[in-house]
Design brief:
Elements: H1 2-10, H2 12-46, E1 57-58, H3 68-74, E2 77-78, H4 80-113, H5 123-137
Antiparallel strand pairs: 1-2
């Protein structure tokens, strides 16, 4: 069983998957920062200076806080502003992945359309062709 496990781990696709998961996690943090720190403040400024992340509806009468973090400590809240931020994160991430896949597909199409150089015939076939051509000239 140990040898099978080592063989499984040593496969290239398992290592590629591990690298992809690590890169994907880091990329997710970048997209979250892009959304929360750059895009949402701009959207908030355009639409009157509000912050989406603190938009919520209290679900209990004991919630009187002005910020989402404080409101969650006081009771149940419907955090639709935070949900909008997460949806925007997803859409940005999906768009970037779409563009990456589209770019890779274009590269593959270009490689498939590029004519392959014809391989030279083997040495013996080439020699026989030269002998045939010389005999034909006589």
């Amino acid at each position: 069983m140990w040898s099978e496990f080592k063989e499984f781990i040593a496969r290239g696709n398992v290592m590629d998957l591990a690298v992809g998961v690590i890169i994907g996690g880091a990329f997710g943090l970048i997209v979250s920062s892009l959304t929360e720190d750059i895009i949402m403040p701009i959207v908030g400024a355009i639409f009157g200076g509000f912050d989406f992340s603190n938009y919520f509806i209290p679900l209990t009468s004991g919630v009187t806080a002005a910020t989402l973090a404080e409101a969650r400590e006081q009771g149940a809240v419907f955090a639709y502003g935070n949900f909008l931020t997460v949806v925007l994160n997803f859409l940005i991430l999906a768009w970037i992945i779409f563009l990456m896949v589209k770019g890779v597909n274009n590269l593959r199409r270009e490689q498939a359309q590029a004519p392959a150089e014809p391989q030279a015939p083997p040495q013996d076939v080439q020699l026989l062709t030269e002998i045939r051509d010389l005999l034909a000239q006589k």
